[in-house]
Specification:
Helices cover about 50% and strands about 15% of the residues. By secondary structure, the chain is of the alpha/beta class. An 8-stranded mixed β-sheet has the order 3-2-1-4-5-6-7-8, sandwiched between helices. It binds NADPH dihydro-nicotinamide-adenine-dinucleotide phosphate. This is NAD(P)-dependent oxidoreductase.
Amino acid sequence: GEGPVTVLGLGAMGGALAGALVDAGYATTVWNRSPGKADGLVARGAHGAATAEEAVRSGGPVVVCLLDHASVHEVLDPLAGDLAGRPVVNVTTTSPAQSRELAAWAAAHGVAYLDGGVMAVPAMIGHPGASVLYSGSPAVFEEHRALLERWGDASWFGEDAGLASLYDLALLAGMYVMFAGFLHGAAMVAPAGVTAAEFARRAAPWLTAMTAGFAGFAEVVDGGDYTVPGQQSLEFSDLGDILAAGAEQGVADDAVAMVQRLIGRQIDAGHGKEGFARIFESIRNPA
Ligand code: NDP
C-alpha cells in the first residue's frame, strides 16, 4: 500500500477525502471530534485514532478538513509541537486572509503548509469533474501530488497561501451571479406559464455556448484597450428592453439592474462607444 496519511475531520467532505485515500490503498489514519463518523472508514480499512494527537503521530502528511478557520486553530494549536517538520494540507474553506494567517502560524511552528480549496461536492471526490486548488508550500504540493490527485485535478497557484482561496471564491462569485441570472430569466417567463424546467432546458445550452465569449473579453481586458474593433459596444448593450420586459412581468429587477448599473457607470464616464468588457473597470476600480 501507499505511505501513511492522516485525515482530521470526517464530515461530509473530510469523510469523502479520507475514503478516496483508503480506496487508493493509503495507510490512512482518521480522527473526528464526535465519535461514530470514523466507523464506516475503519470498516473499509482506515485506522481510527481516539484523539487528534494520536492521529498525527502515525506519520505522513496531515489533511485537515474541518468546519472553518476557528475550528482548524482549535484542533491544530495544541498539536503544534507534534506537527513541527510535518506537511499539513488544509482544505477547510477559509478566506484568503485566514489562509495566510494559518500559513504564518504554520511557519512559526516549522510546519510545511499547503492550503486547498475544494471545487466539488463530496460525491464528486475521486471522480471526473472534481478539482482542488492549492497554494502555499510548493514542496508539499510536489511531494504529495499523487495523493492529492486521488481527489481530483490538482493545481497549484503560488506560494501565497491565500491564492487558492481567492481563486475559489472568485469562481464561486461567477457561479452565483450566473445562477441568479438563470433564476431571473425563469421568473420572467413564469407568468407566461413556462415552467422553470422548460426554461432550464433552453438556458443551459444557451449559457454554455455564451461562455465561449470569455476568452474574447479576457483578451480585451488583458490588452487594456477597450476600443479594439469588433466588440459589442456598451451603448448597444443597454439592458433597458430586458428591464422593461421584466417590469411588465412584475419581477424584481435586482439581477439585471446590477449589470445595467455597471454598464451605466462606464457610459456616464464617456466610454459608451467602447466594448462591453469595459464593465471590468466598473468593478475593478470602483469610484
Ligand atoms: P460538515 O459539517 O459535514 O463537517 C464539519 C466537520 O468539522 C465535522 O467533522 C465536525 O466535527 C468538524 N468540526 C467543526 N467544528 C469543530 C471543532 N471546533 N473542533 C473539531 N472539529 C470540528 O462539513 P463538510 O465536511 O461538508 O465541510 C468541511 C469543509 O469542507 C468546510 O470548510 C466546507 O466549506 C468545505 N467544503 C465542503 C463542500 C461540500 O460540498 N460539503 C464543498 C467544498 C468545500 P463533528 O462531527 O464533531 O461536528
